[in-house]
């Protein structure tokens, strides 16, 4: 089984924005699953708006990588695919009703995110983007 997601990679001061959904213990890169026939960009704009109450500039959205990994809390053989994008935003980052907490993570916080997010952390660290 494949879980296809998109994620917004927002790095400031060597730290990446992560969010913890309501009722979960784990932090994730903001984003989520597409609805119906949404494109990656449409999914990203909707999810980031829903989760963090900001509007991404569609013209600034750029693909930075796609990662796949299993997840310990999902059935055997399930793979999570995360297509990652950067993009500028308007507004004030504010956790929505579905997000309990927002945090800026450094590479030292890597154990707090799922395996697919850890692959992104590794690439960002290697590129010198994540402290």
From TrEMBL:
Domain Nudix hydrolase: 1-126
Signal peptide bounds: none
CDD domains: NUDIX_Hydrolase (cd04690)
This protein's name: NUDIX domain-containing protein
Provenance organism: Streptomyces lichenis
């Amino acid at each position: 089984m494949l879980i296809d997601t998109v994620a917004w990679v927002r790095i400031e001061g060597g730290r990446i924005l992560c969010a913890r959904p309501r009722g979960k213990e784990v932090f994730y890169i903001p984003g989520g699953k597409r609805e119906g026939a949404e494109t990656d960009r449409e999914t990203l704009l909707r999810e980031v708006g829903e989760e963090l109450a900001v509007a991404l500039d569609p013209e600034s959205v750029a693909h930075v990588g796609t990662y796949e990994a299993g997840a310990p809390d999902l059935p055997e053989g399930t793979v999570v695919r995360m297509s990652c994008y950067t993009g500028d935003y308007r507004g004030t980052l504010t956790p929505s009703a579905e997000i309990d907490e927002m945090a800026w993570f450094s590479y030292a916080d890597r154990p707090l995110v799922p395996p697919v997010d850890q692959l992104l952390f590794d690439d960002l660290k290697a590129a010198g983007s994540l402290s």
